[in-house]
Amino acid sequence: MKNTGLKFPAVLLAFLFHITVNAQTMSTKEDQNRAAIFPKGDKAPAEYFSGTAWVKTLVANDDTLTTIISNVVFEPGARNNWHTHPAGQILICTEGTGYYQEKGKPIQILHASDVVRILPGVEHWHGASPTSRFTHIAINVNTEKGVVNWLHPVTDEEYNKK
Amino acid sequence: MKNTGLKFPAVLLAFLFHITVNAQTMSTKEDQNRAAIFPKGDKAPAEYFSGTAWVKTLVANDDTLTTIISNVVFEPGARNNWHTHPAGQILICTEGTGYYQEKGKPIQILHASDVVRILPGVEHWHGASPTSRFTHIAINVNTEKGVVNWLHPVTDEEYNKK
């Protein structure tokens, strides 16, 4: 029984270490899943996206609501091509750190809760920052006027001009 | 030193209890804040809502995008009046358990990731379940055709007919 005093702190430390490690794992997982309200959906087409992005259609187009809503997840470094929307688009940012740029203007940094109003015909692109995943809900309004006109990819030089 | 063997388990138990309690507190807090992407906003008008709800305008109306977007948080038991939207509305559920009912149909239960397409002129109401907070993003499209026509409150009898 002489060593009992040493044995218990060792057990205690092992328990605490185990619990701390588990808590950290859980916390990281929680952070990653915090805004994962929707399933990832399908891989975004390489024709219009650089890097890996995922698109989940939430509302498909129709003649009554004339609105398309998609949840888009960009892996770090991923972005879409330069493009325009004939009737405009609204982005609601829900997770991570993103980039948004309109032609001739500096890149804007986006975070959860940021909302971007993209006016009709404005050339722009959006995507994740180089080190963080980024998720937004994209709302195409008044689709009877058109949805999107895709242009050329955002070059690494344009993307890294930060 | 004779009692050391008893003292350490007591310390260990106390630690474990402390850690367990803290972990539970954190977990509950995480759950509550999981989808709190937006600040709560302003209290919804008692004229059109029963119970406590909060409205944060994300996109105000304008002639270009003709769209209004709001984040609405309903405390447990809160709901809006029966109403119609001349041009329709889309609900994107982000947190908690909610209710949605169209006139003459049973109440539908809503959870995070559910999307509701409300067609123009359809009489309906939405809100939280009796025991859970509920949050959705509400998107009013084609606002040039009108936004909302408020009707009478949802009675307790209607609300509890589940």
From TrEMBL, chains A, B:
<keyword id="KW-0732">Signal</keyword>
<feature type="domain" description="Cupin type-2">
    <location>
        <begin position="72"/>
        <end position="128"/>
    </location>
</feature>
<dbReference type="InterPro" id="IPR014710">
    <property type="entry name" value="RmlC-like_jellyroll"/>
</dbReference>
<dbReference type="InterPro" id="IPR013096">
    <property type="entry name" value="Cupin_2"/>
</dbReference>
<feature type="signal peptide">
    <location>
        <begin position="1"/>
        <end position="23"/>
    </location>
</feature>
<protein>
    <submittedName>
        <fullName>Cupin domain-containing protein</fullName>
    </submittedName>
</protein>
<dbReference type="InterPro" id="IPR047263">
    <property type="entry name" value="HNL-like_cupin"/>
</dbReference>
<dbReference type="Pfam" id="PF07883">
    <property type="entry name" value="Cupin_2"/>
</dbReference>
<dbReference type="InterPro" id="IPR011051">
    <property type="entry name" value="RmlC_Cupin_sf"/>
</dbReference>
